[in-house]
Specification:
Length: about 375
């Protein structure tokens, strides 16, 4: 059996500066998270209504060393105990990714430790194996504020993109709807809470792309329909009531649940054609939504698939997933050298047709 390795993982591709120390055995599932520190930047960007790349990059540059030190202290280890340094090398906001890559290169050059440049999406997608014995291949639905895609995960560096959003990510839509209705950010939890008391059938919002075969998704038409419904109410009555707001949230969330559930059913069928029923894994902030999670879990069970949903703190951006992706990669390939580049775009499946557009949280890759 391969020996256990200890890896320092660094993440700075969006608005969380994160570091973690993870121990694991390359080629084997289930690692041990010795420490994981996340320093969020919500307060820095709040007044701008979105992540400001320059502010994010500067904050990452200022905080990476602090967060890395905190993680090692919390784990009770030092650089000497590490076997490698892993860093997000893309995709994401380029300034933040560069801050991380530069810092990691410095650490690697200074300590002599091997350097692994990790694809941020691979970090999310491999997380189920960090916490559970999920064997390759499995189907992953990555659904967050910046991403929405179905991937057949066939190995640590073998990903087949089966479909994804052609415009917005669902989390982005949740956030925009919340802003439209005067609810708090991030919008997902606020909209979910409102939806509980709403009448989901009142507005009859559209289910984009359901009539099209395949598992691509779209959320921008739905967002527009919600805006129109709100504007019509404002015009008619001069404003919206609490009940209107709850009904809009319930209608919007119901449409997202419907679209995700139906497209997931198709992705499961397509996956099963090649691999048979295996495991459906979900990751990303939107997977925290109880209605969405429940619907996906039900469909997975109905299609004979197992279910894996890492705990939320590992679904949102963190350093442990980056360290773990390096442990996984060690089973199949070697480290990078100091020519490692920061990449704003970096699709996991290099053979898939590239997606257009770029969300406020960075490239959709
Ligand atoms: O994965 P994540 O923390 O960050 C990235 O996007 O990378 O996802 C954040 C997104 C936000 O858009 C947030 O509104 C959404 O996930 N979200 C939710 C819920 N909790 C978080 N969306 C729907 N329902 C929720 N309960
Ligand atoms: Zn992420």
């Amino acid at each position: 059996m391969a020996r256990a390795v200890t890896v320092l993982g660094l993440e700075s591709s969006c608005d969380d500066t994160a570091a973690a120390v993870v121990r694991g055995v390359p080629g084997h599932t289930v690692g041990e998270i010795l420490a994981s520190e996340v320093w969020g930047q919500d307060g820095l960007h709040a007044e701008f209504g979105g992540v400001v790349p320059e502010i994010a990059a500067r904050a990452h540059a200022e905080r990476l060393d602090v967060v890395a030190m905190r993680a090692m202290e919390a784990a009770g280890v030092g650089l000497n105990d590490m076997d490698a340094i892993a860093v997000t090398a893309g995709p994401g906001l380029i300034g933040g990714v560069m801050s991380g890559v530069m810092f990691a290169k410095g650490l690697s050059a200074g300590s002599g430790l091997p350097l692994y440049g990790i694809n941020h999406l691979a970090g999310h997608v491999l997380t189920p194996r960090l916490v559970e014995d999920v064997a390759y291949p499995y189907l992953m639905l990555l659904v967050s504020g910046g991403h929405c895609q179905f991937l057949a995960v066939e190995g640590p560096d073998r990903f087949r993109r089966m479909g994804g959003t052609i415009d917005d990510a669902p989390g982005e839509a949740f956030d925009k709807i919340a802003r439209l209705l005067g609810l708090a950010q991030p919008g997902g939890p606020a909209v979910e809470a409102e939806a509980k008391s709403g009448d989901g059938a009142r507005f009859g919002f559209p289910r984009p792309l359901l009539d099209r075969p395949g598992c691509d998704l779209s959320f921008s038409g739905l967002k527009t329909a919600v805006r129109r419904a709100r504007d019509a109410l404002v015009e008619e009555k001069g404003g919206i009531t609490r009940a209107d707001r709850a009904d809009i949230c319930a209608g919007f969330q119901g449409a997202v649940v419907d679209v995700l559930a139906k497209k997931t059913a198709r992705a499961l069928d397509a996956f099963a054609e090649t691999h048979g029923p295996r495991v459906l894994a979900v990751a990303g902030g939107v997977a925290a939504n109880a209605a969405i999670r429940g619907a996906l879990q039900e469909i997975a069970a109905a299609k004979g698939f197992g279910w894996s949903a890492p705990p939320l703190r590992l679904c949102t951006d963190n350093g442990a997933m980056i360290a773990w992706a390096a442990v996984e990669r060690m089973a199949v390939s070697g480290p990078d050298d100091l020519t490692l580049a920061a990449r704003p775009r970096w699709p996991l499946d290099t053979e898939a047709v590239p997606m257009l557009g770029s969300g406020k949280r960075g490239a959709k890759a």
